[in-house]
């Protein structure tokens, strides 16, 4: 009998090819499927109006320009109709509150791409503190994760050519840190043996300006089985230090302090999140941690003094302990405070600890509720004197309330409004309700229902989910969903299933590895609960998810095909036999398991969508969307799933954007096109407008 795990049984293996003759053959298949899908969906009368509306939203001039602080400047990447790839620009911090700040263009991505005949996508910049004169700009060709890095002068606003001594790192999935003005710590692709099995850096090299990169000495090295290695440099005055780490898997890390030429192991659990902040260490265990006679549950936040840590003391102060329904979503640091963003049944609360008090003092911050709060600290610990040390930006939104950004200061509830997004759709009469569905094992799973008044079981309903990697689906404001779906008469449902982080690490760990089926059970339970409540019926119920969420909707489509009338499966994992062999897939084995291990494969094979398609079963006519330039989740997953469905006589739609990376699109034109195809498909399948 042929081993079902063997690639030799895969008749569509050739669709994984990205280069050479097989790659051309696969791309011809893609172009033919694209043409077929676009011919049908773009012919719908609602396609072009939706595309135009979404493009208008994406390019709107009244959007909030989100910023990153570097010294005295706020930096922003702005994309609109005139600048599809974007202007990287800046204004003084004091100018940001103006209705129309006097932005200075730092780099014009469209002009650069035109001059160099490259499809450049901006992937950020790493600036050297404390003067912020030099930075490394990351540029991706077509939006892939792999990017090249070039040194840029933020005073003259010019690249520094390599022939003039500028740093240049060729295209790769690199990790680069400034050690000093003339030295970089570089993890990149240096040839055979320099990458992990996941395709990320295995070595960190010390590269001196003016010397060949390939001759830079190796300073730190991990194992091929690691996910990656990396370095971080802390220039906080009085606490200067360099850390190295090995990511053993997605959730475990071996850490080292580089001191006097030695790598000193940091003696803490490998699955703990660790952050050094001046005289403090902040510790966030992902599993219960018993130390000094006390057990700190997973999801806690603990504070330890730096000096005490190096003396070997492990008696931390407790800043947060999770309780049922209450978990730590995130924390941020100002000069004297720790700000905690706490999730209460997927709505945000804000608390702060004043570390300048002895002992540290806790205060509840009065902030909007319910909805999503996020804190963006303005503190720069590497500046000797920071005038914004205790300032932060507070962002708030919910499903029906547009985003606002206010300037806040730790220790006070007073806030100054800075920016507010205008309403992008008419929410008059719409409501948000939270319900709980009972999953197959009895767990209560929360979900949100967003819609208009008087909607019943005939309402086209879109159920969205993710359920992986401890990612929480907090309420967000979406003009796209509002314009293309809600105001046209649809209902939106967001499921907070296990595998996500809505209730902390344990909510995530309950649906990993051999227990991944619980994510699918939870999602199916929400769908059934919607039907039981009379809010929809299968013919009117569509599901959508991307990446791990693509696996989610793919598995649910295969397991319960009669339950759904539409499936939008975006940049998905679908072939769980081969996912670990494709691009970054090996890095996710801590989430899903190892297909080459017989016990793990027994669980994977039970739900892997590609392997579980069966002849004679009527599946919903799904839409698979991916990107040729996605170098994180291989487009072969979506290609092969569509091909197998077609071979079984099952109709489906397929769209593969040639650019875009894992986000599926490289600019607003491509985003509007992709999203309009998805919504035109949903209206076709589910009826209505």
Automatic annotation (TrEMBL):
InterPro entries referenced in this protein's UniProt entry, alphabetically: AB_hydrolase_fold, Pept_S9A_N, Peptidase_S9_cat, Peptidase_S9A, Prolyl_oligopep/macrocyclase
Database matches in SUPFAM superfamilies: alpha/beta-Hydrolases, Peptidase/esterase 'gauge' domain
Peptidase S9A N-terminal domain span: 5-235
Cross-referenced Gene3D superfamilies: alpha/beta hydrolase, Prolyl oligopeptidase, N-terminal domain
Catalytic EC class: hydrolase
KW Endoplasmic reticulum (keyword) present: no
EC number(s) per entry: 3.4.21.26
Keywords: Hydrolase, Protease, Serine protease
Superkingdom of this protein's organism: Bacteria
The keyword Disulfide bond appears for this protein: no
Domain Peptidase S9 prolyl oligopeptidase catalytic: 485-688
Pfam families recorded: Peptidase_S9, Peptidase_S9_N
GO molecular function, one term: serine-type endopeptidase activity
Annotated protein name in UniProt: Prolyl oligopeptidase
Species this protein is from: Roseateles terrae
């Amino acid at each position: 009998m042929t081993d079902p795990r063997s690639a030799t049984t895969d008749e569509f293996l050739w669709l994984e090819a990205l280069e050479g003759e097989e790659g051309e053959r696969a791309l011809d298949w893609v172009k033919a499927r694209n043409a077929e899908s676009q011919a049908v969906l773009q012919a719908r009368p609602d396609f072009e109006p939706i595309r135009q509306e979404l493009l208008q939203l994406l390019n709107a001039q009244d959007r909030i320009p989100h910023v990153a602080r570097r010294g005295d400047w706020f930096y922003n990447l702005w994309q609109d109709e005139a600048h599809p790839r974007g202007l990287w620009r800046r204004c003084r911090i004091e100018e940001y509150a103006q209705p129309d700040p006097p932005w200075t263009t730092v780099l014009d991505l469209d002009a650069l791409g035109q001059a160099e005949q490259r499809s450049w996508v901006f992937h950020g910049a790493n600036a050297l503190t404390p003067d912020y004169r030099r930075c490394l700009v990351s540029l991706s060709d077509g939006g892939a994760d792999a990017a090249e890095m070039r040194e840029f002068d933020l005073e003259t606003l010019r690249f520094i050519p390599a022939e003039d001594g500028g740093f240049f790192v060729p295209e790769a999935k690199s990790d680069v840190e400034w050690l000093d003005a003339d030295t970089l710590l570089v993890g990149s692709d240096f040839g055979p043996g320099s990458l992990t099995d996941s395709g990320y850096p295995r070595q960190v090299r010390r590269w001196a300006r003016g010397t060949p990169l390939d001759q830079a000495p190796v300073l730190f090295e991990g194992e091929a089985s690691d996910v990656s290695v990396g370095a971080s440099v802390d220039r906080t005055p009085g606490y200067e230090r360099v850390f190295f780490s090995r990511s053993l898997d997605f959730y475990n890390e071996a850490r080292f302090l580089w001191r006097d030429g030695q790598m000193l192991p940091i003696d803490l659990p490998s699955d703990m999140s660790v952050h050094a902040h001046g005289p403090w260490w902040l510790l966030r265990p992902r599993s219960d941690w018993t130390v000094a006679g006390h057990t700190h549950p997973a999801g806690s936040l603990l504070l330890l003094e730096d000096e005490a840590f190096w003396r070997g003391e492990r008696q931390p102060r407790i800043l947060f302990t999770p309780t049922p329904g209450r978990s730590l979503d995130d924390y941020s640091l100002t000069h004297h405070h720790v700000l905690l963003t706490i999730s209460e049944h997927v709505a945000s609360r804000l608390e702060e600890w004043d570390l300048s008090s002895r002992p540290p003092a806790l205060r509840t911050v009065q902030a909007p509720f319910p909805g999503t709060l996020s804190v963006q600290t303005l503190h720069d610990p590497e500046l000797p004197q920071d005038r914004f040390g205790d300032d932060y930006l507070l962002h708030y939104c919910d499903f029906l309330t547009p985003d606002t950004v206010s300037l806040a200061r730790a220790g006070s509830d007073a806030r100054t409004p800075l920016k507010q997004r205008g309403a992008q759709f008419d929410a008059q009469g719409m409501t948000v309700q939270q319900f709980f569905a009972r999953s197959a094992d009895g767990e209560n799973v929360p979900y949100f229902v967003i819609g208009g008044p008087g909607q019943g079981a005939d309402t086209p309903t879109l159920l969205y989910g993710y359920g992986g990697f401890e990612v929480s689906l907090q309420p967000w404001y979406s003009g796209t969903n509002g314009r293309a779906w809600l105001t046209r008469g649809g209902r939106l449902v967001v499921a907070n299933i296990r595998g996500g982080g809505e209730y902390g690490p344990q909510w995530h760990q309950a649906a990993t590895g051999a227990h991944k089926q619980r994510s699918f059970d939870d999602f199916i339970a929400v769908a059934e609960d919607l039907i039981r409540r009379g809010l929809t019926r299968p013919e009117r119920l569509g599901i959508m998810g991307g990446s791990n969420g693509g696996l989610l909707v793919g598995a649910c489509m295969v397991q319960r095909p009669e339950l759904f009338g539409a499936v939008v499966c975006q940049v998905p994992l679908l072939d769980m036999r081969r996912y670990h062999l494709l691009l970054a897939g090996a890095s996710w084995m801590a989430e899903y398991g190892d297909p080459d291990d017989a016990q793990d494969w027994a669980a994977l094979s039970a739900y892997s969508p590609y392997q579980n398609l069966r002849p004679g079963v009527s599946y919903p006519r799904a839409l698979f969307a991916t990107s040729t330039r996605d170098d994180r989740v291989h487009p072969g997953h979506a290609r092969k799933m569509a091909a197998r469905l077609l071979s079984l006589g099952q109709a489906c739609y397929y769209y593969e954007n040639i650019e875009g990376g894992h986000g599926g699109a490289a600019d607003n034109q491509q985003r509007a096109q992709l999203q309009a195809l998805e919504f035109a498909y949903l209206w076709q399948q589910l009826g209505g407008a």
